[in-house]
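Ticket #307: bound-state structure for fe (ii) ion.
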Amino acid sequence: MLIKMDQIKNLKITTLVENLAFPKYLGQWGLSFLLELVDAQDKLRKIILDTGGNKKAFKHNVRALKVDISDVDSVVLSHGHWDHTAATVEVAKAAGGGLKIFAHPHTFLPRFFTDKRGKKRKMGVPKGERLDEIEMEGGKISLTSEPTEVAPGVWTTGQIKRITAFEHALPLAEGEKLSIFIDGMELDDQILDDQALWMNVENVGPVVITGCAHAGSINTLFQVQKLGRFKEIFGLAGGTHLVKRSDEYLWKTVGEFKKIGLKLISPCHCTGFKATSILWQTFPEAFVLNYSGRAIKPGERPKTVVF
Ligand SMILES: [Fe+2]
Ligand SMILES: [Fe+2]
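RESOLUTION: The complex was predicted; output attached.
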């Protein structure tokens, strides 16, 4: 699929919740971004990517940031893990009906982590935030694995092709298992629902915003390059799942980031401190530390890039 790409006019990305927090906001394991933009048809839009892992922190930060979520157009869920889906109902409630929610068909399916002793822990969308509960608050859910135009010029990647040789799921210890129930059958969970958001910003270039990048951050960027026919990508913000990766894995990622020409790298959430510090030191001109309360306008260098 090739996409006729219309440029959006500008973009501001605010981190509503993230593991780290600037004082007065709450940090928590999870992720949520608010995108404020002027779309390709000159319409102001608010789009939320993911809704964090803790409702209380989400609501606290929305209040503390003084952002209005009553006019959010849509929520895109990057995948169905609990730490990205904990406050979708709250956004639907605030929007007062008609909120659009975009997700992959696997997003709301039950999924578990099973430990060595056979004990199962829920990994999926938390209770109170599921499909029917979102619909009860007037949310209109669209489930598809295809790239989707969320607003003029703003696209999801759809299900991401896994083509790099080095990007793979984090290895589990013996006896551990990640599983998902599809049509009642328990299957190994490869988190195929993982997807990202992307857009081409006028006078800046393509920007990609990820949830966890379970499909691999390079696979994600390759997919966007292919869909939009982009030689280079300007910016990447979001989770990269580089936590606990080998040095070889990290340096291969760094090498690909260089080739892709990233001018803005704002990794967070599941990136981990080691990978974050490598990215900061390797790309001092592009790196921007991310945390709850951070606002980034791609193309404009924030005054403080780290604390
Ligand atoms: Fe995840
Ligand atoms: Fe996550």
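RESOLUTION NOTES: Helices lie at 55-65, 88-95, 131-136, 217-228, 247-260, 273-282.
TICKET STATUS: resolved
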